[in-house]
Structure formats: C-alpha cells, structure tokens
Amino acid sequence: MTTSIDYGNLMHAAMRGLIRRVLEDVAQRGLPGEHHFFITFDTMHPDVEIADWLSDRYPGEMTVVMQHWFDGLDVGEDGFAVTLNFGERPEPLYIPYDAIRTFVDPSVEFGLRFETQENERADDVSAADMVEIDDEDDSAAGKKGEGEVVSLDAFRK
Predict the structure, then answer these.
(1) Cβ partners under 8 Å of residue 108, min gap 6
(2) Which tens digit of pLDDT belongs to each residue from 59-102?
(3) Dihedral of the CA atoms 131, 133, 36, 28 (nearest 10)?
(4) Count of CB atoms situated within 10 Å of the CB of 119
(5) Where are the alpha helices (DSSP H) in 1-82?
(6) Helix segments in 30-106, DSSP class H
(7) What is this structure's pTM?
(8) Using one digit for the tens of pLDDT, what is the confidence trace for 111-134?
(9) Is the dihedral angle over the CA atoms 24, 27, 28, 33 positive or is it negative?
(10) Which whole-number Å values give the CA distances from 128 to 2, 101, 113, 132, 153, in the listed order?
(11) Which residues pair with 151 in a beta bridge?
C-alpha cells in the first residue's frame, strides 16, 4: 500500500490525455478558427522519430508549429505522428506524449508545461511532481494578454 497519492503523475497523465483528445479532434475535423499549436519536445527522447538533420540541428529540444500546413496527423495511445513542412521540405515526425515539454495554443492563450527532473530541486521532488498550467482568465488576470501561471508545487506541504 502506498503512503501518499502521486498527484504529479496523475496530473501529467491527465494533461497528456487532454493533448491526445485535442489532437484526435484536429485529426478528424481540422484546426478550428484561429487555433494553432506550438509543441516543444525532447528530441533526445528514445521514442522520438525525426530526420537526422533535424536532430543534428536541434540536439535537445525542438518546437514545431501546427498551423497552416500539416499532413498525416495520426494520433495514437502513446504519441502522434505528423508531417510538417521545414522550408518547403516535408518531414514526418513521431512525438511521444511523454517527450512533450510544452503545448501551447496562443490563439486562446492556453498552455501546458511539463517540468523535467533537471529543472527541479533534487531533494524531495520527483520529475512528475511539478506541473505548471498557463491559462488566461480575463476576469482574474485583469486585462487581455496577462496569463496566470499556477504551480502545483506551491500547494505542497
């Protein structure tokens, strides 16, 4: 029996599930309105599949944009595949959900950030414990353009 509830891992699973559901909807219906995504991921994750020239150019982290042109969006249980255009050069990518570091839809000022162990305190915080959600609420933030970052770590004893 465990001695505590692992809220960090539960929250990460929920956030990855949200990304999966959004991408499934986009795969079926396309991007609605002005929605578009900036997705930053760990290029060194063992299950990431990108062209060698891309991993050479981005040897740690890469941000891709899904907006005007993308093809072959295939959303799976553990990750998604998509073909994106890099300077008139279409390239297929496979990105596992657990390689994603940030997922942002700037059209509605929504973002998710997954913290990694190297960004955290080494004493008592595991890689999944710190989760930050960046979301805009006009009434709470005051004026448009000011998002609020909520860190779950702030509520920890």
Answers:
(1) 35, 136
(2) 999 999 999 889 999 999 999 999 999 888 899 999 999 999 99
(3) 70
(4) 12
(5) 7-29, 52-57
(6) 52-57
(7) 0.71
(8) 999 876 444 433 333 333 333 333
(9) positive
(10) 17, 12, 11, 11, 11
(11) 132
